[in-house]
């Protein structure tokens, strides 16, 4: 018996009856020989961590564009916070931590530069629209290069489903995926409060609102309250959810953040420029597809057309997009 088989047996013994077991996974798009050490979900996690798209998250905006400070969240630190919160809940509920972690680490791989304003801009110019969860799935199924000769990381169906359905109306097929879906919101609402105070958009007076008496007035207290509530509400149930009171307070807080931060002119003051960069770059490559990198131009010629252009723009980091824009559109002085 090898190490993987021992781990699979241990999962059967200690995990909840509601948990997804690696030994009964629905499998990959292309069958592979099993690893002697890692379970299938552990391999998925490792493939995501070692991907280029995961590394690029460190230079992609979360909320604030080009902040002057080292402590603002990026798309990468957001991803790590989602992973940490999700694993805590999965462990307490005796669900599969490895599956939960893999979904959490991969859920935003398809996000654009410049945060949600970049997503909105690409959605406006691309004929088929753009949704970052669908792009994240496209990244792991096609764009990243792994063991599958046709492209993609060849992840298990459970991980791919969790990535696709971490946002939107549909529920993930696994409880582990549903944990990530709720923890994505828990993470971004709470760390965006922290960043908004750091940016001077919100003040400490915010914590005088009654909602914070219930959820907590510090970052750690709020996270702890929400985690405990999800665990206590979901235990012994075939679903992941918050209690009615906490859910109502959390939605109130989320609405407040949309009104005062996500739609705040101060937080959005550079977004007009960012939208212009995304749209102009996209239109430039529509007119000049041969200027795409070779791999994406091959994809373009292979029937993907403008989807390959969308893939290129979505994969850019903030600073790469700005540099590329300058090189293409800003005149250079003669030397």
Summarize the structure.
The protein has helices at residues 3-14, 40-49, 52-56, 75-92, 97-106, 115-125, 132-143, 157-164, 175-198, 211-215, 219-234, 244-262, 271-287, 294-304, 306-315, 318-329. With 335 residues, the protein is mainly alpha-helical.
How would you explain this protein's 3D organization?
This protein is mainly alpha-helical and 335 residues long. The chain has 16 helices and no strands. It is flat and about 70 Å long.
Largest sheet: none
Write down the secondary-structure element order.
HHHHHHHHHHHHHHHH
CATH topology: Hypothetical protein af1432
- Quote the beta fraction: under 5%
List key phrases describing it.
single chain, 335 residues, mainly alpha, Hypothetical protein af1432, 16 helices, flat
Would you spell out the secondary-structure blueprint of this structure?
Layout: H1 3-14, H2 40-49, H3 52-56, H4 75-92, H5 97-106, H6 115-125, H7 132-143, H8 157-164, H9 175-198, H10 211-215, H11 219-234, H12 244-262, H13 271-287, H14 294-304, H15 306-315, H16 318-329
């Amino acid at each position: 018996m090898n190490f993987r088989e021992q781990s699979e047996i241990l999962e059967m013994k200690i995990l909840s009856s509601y948990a997804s077991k690696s030994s009964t996974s629905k499998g990959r798009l292309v069958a592979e020989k099993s690893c002697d050490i890692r379970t299938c979900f552990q391999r998925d996690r490792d493939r995501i961590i070692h991907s280029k798209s995961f590394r690029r998250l460190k230079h992609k905006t979360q909320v604030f564009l080009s902040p002057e400070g080292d402590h603002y969240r990026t798309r990468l630190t957001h991803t790590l916070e989602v992973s940490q919160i999700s694993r805590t809940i999965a462990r307490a509920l005796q669900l599969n931590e490895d599956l939960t972690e893999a979904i959490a680490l991969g859920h935003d791989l398809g996000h654009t530069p410049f945060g949600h304003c970049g997503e909105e801009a690409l959605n406006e110019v691309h004929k088929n629209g753009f949704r970052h969860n669908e792009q994240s799935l496209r990244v792991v199924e096609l764009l990243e290069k792994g063991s599958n000769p046709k492209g993609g990381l060849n992840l298990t169906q459970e991980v791919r489903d969790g990535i696709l359905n971490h946002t939107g109306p549909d529920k993930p097929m696994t409880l582990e995926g549903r944990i990530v879906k709720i923890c994505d919101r828990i993470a971004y609402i709470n760390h965006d409060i922290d960043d908004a105070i750091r940016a001077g958009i919100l003040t400490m007076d915010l914590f005088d609102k009654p909602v914070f008496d219930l959820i907590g007035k510090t970052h750690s207290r709020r996270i702890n309250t929400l985690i405990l509530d999800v665990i206590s509400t979901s235990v012994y149930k075939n679903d992941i959810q918050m209690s009615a009171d906490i859910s109502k307070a959390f939605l109130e807080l989320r609405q407040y953040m949309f009104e005062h931060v996500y739609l705040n002119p101060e937080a959005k003051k550079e977004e007009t420029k960012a939208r212009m960069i995304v749209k102009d770059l996209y239109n430039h490559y529509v007119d000049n597809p041969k200027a795409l990198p070779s791999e994406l131009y091959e994809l373009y010629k292979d029937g993907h057309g403008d989807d390959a252009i969308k893939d290129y723009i979505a994969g850019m980091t903030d600073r790469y997009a700005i540099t590329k824009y300058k090189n293409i559109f800003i005149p250079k002085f003669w030397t």
